[in-house]
Amino acid sequence: MSADLVITILELAGLYVFATSGALMAIHKGFDVVGIVVLAMLTALGGGILRDLIIGATPPAAFTNVNYLIIPMFAALVTFFVHPVVQRMTFTVLVFDAAGLGLFCVTGTLKALEFGLGSLQAALLGITTAVGGGVLRDITARETPALVQVETDLYSIPTAAGAIVVAGAHHTDLPMPVVATCAAVLVFAFRILAMLRHWTAPRAWTRQRRDSTV
Questions:
Q1: Range of the domain at 160
Q2: In a domain, 183, yes or no
Q3: DSSP secondary-structure letter at 211?
Q4: What CA–CA distance (Å, rounded) separates 13 from 23?
Q5: What is the total count of domains within the chain?
Q6: Rg of the chain (C-alpha set)
Q7: Which residues pair with 200 in a beta bridge?
Q8: Which end of the chain is more exposed for a tag (fewer CB within 10 A), N or C?
Q9: How far is CA 105 from each of CA 129, 140, 145, rounded to the nearest angstrom?
């Protein structure tokens, strides 16, 4: 299986799960059908469009491949009708988001590497691809982006771990399709475990002073 085919499969799967996450948030916020579709599209395509604009892959893939538009629309339509079932499972939204996180960080890193970027730059673009759509989703829904909320369970750190694995493997003889799949699973498992254990990123360090007595 070629690396290009792996990228395509992972991106299409990521589009669906991220669009579902966006549609669920729109329904939770009481948006109408237009808002549901818009939020689904933003969540699914936002990070990839940012990545493509940065690396000069224009027009972005979202505007050259009709599947990139159809899949988020289809996910929004499905969610529109089945959301009463899905909303009874609060954890489902986060699972969809974790799956999209793993898939998109891998595809973003791989595409950046294909365009000749260095490992660090490619990893950063992989992170941007994964979290960019979620940030746009939260801003549009008038929510503080989960990416920067103090109480948010680890979000960008699992993404960074997956992107680093893919970028590092690029300089080895390891089969990239296997590495890409394993990295996506790693991010997904890391994110789910962080949610179950409520792991959060550390805050700014402050020096503790002992109270002195006279």
A1: 3-197
A2: yes
A3: P
A4: 16
A5: 1
A6: 18
A7: 153
A8: C
A9: 6, 22, 18
Q: Cβ of 150: how many Cβ atoms within 10 Å? A: 8
Rounded Cα gap, residues 122 and 105, in angstroms: 10
What 8-state DSSP symbol labels residue 148?
G
List pLDDT tens digits, range 16-44: 888 988 998 898 889 999 999 999 999 99
Please name the residue ranges forming H helices in 115-203. Answer: 119-140, 156-169, 176-197
- pTM for the model: 0.83
121-179 pLDDT per residue, tens: 999 999 999 999 989 999 999 888 878 887 788 888 999 999 999 999 988 888 888 89
Q: For residue 78, is it within any domain?
A: yes
- Only one residue has tokens 């339509």, namely 77
Residue 212 resides in a domain: no
Domain assignment present for 208: no
Cα–Cα distance for residue pair 4/1, rounded to 1 Å:
8
